[in-house]
Amino acid sequence: MRYAAAIISTLPLLSFSSPLPQGAPSGHEVEITGITYGGTGCPDKTVQGLLSDDRTTIALSFDAYTVQSGPSIPATERRKFCQLQLKIKKPSGFQYSIFGADYRGYASLEKGVTGTTQSTYYFSGEQNQTVIPTSFTGPMEGNYLKHDEIDAGSTVWSPCGEPGILNIKSEVRIVPMAATGLNLLTVDTVDAKFTQKYFVQWQKCDPKKGGNGGGGSGGLRPPTFDDGNLGREVDLSGRPIQN
């Protein structure tokens, strides 16, 4: 089975879409304090993590994020999803926006079959969300790269005056279900980095007023396991990774 990894960092860096405010938080003021997960693409005991010494970068590994279709393959194997919840500590008086991510994987699709990957970004307790879908149409055989870049007009901001829980929900599926041959779509790596240019932006806010929730696609975000806690905590007790 394919192995998947994710690297997530919270070092604030200048966004191309807005100037960095004076006194923006440094990497020492922003840290990941925990992460929970859940979903058919990341069932219990299939996610491991390593945290850097300064608690700003986390590397996650998955071993069950593959969908497939074909004769004798159950319908449950044609769609999977994984939701991550990052608990992030940040200074009072600042908000940060959803960044972006790179998803790498492998697709083996016959003619007439479509593989889709979709990512949804939002903060717990907020209505705004950003949804980015990508499709691959067969015949296709080889690796793929899905790059999510959030437009300034679709920015979703973290709550002001609260730590905030960042949700990243990804989904992969194959359609139609009645495929005659063997089809495969995997998520091998997910690189969601705050450290790369335009992946994050900061703005000052007033905790007393609650700040600005930002843009997003509008409407309520999709149902989740539990906005407070997905129930499966990533074990971060392994050897620290290097930034």
From TrEMBL:
Query: InterPro entries, from UniProt?
Result: DUF4360 (IPR025649)
- Mind listing the UniProt keywords for this protein, alphabetically? Signal
Its domain of life reads Eukaryota
According to the record, the residues making up region (Disordered) are: 209-243
> Does the keyword Signal belong to this entry?
yes
Q: Which residues form the signal peptide?
A: 1-17
Compositional bias, Gly residues, is annotated for 210-219
Q: Does the keyword Glycoprotein apply?
A: no
Protein known as: DUF4360 domain-containing protein
This protein's species is: Aaosphaeria arxii CBS 175.79
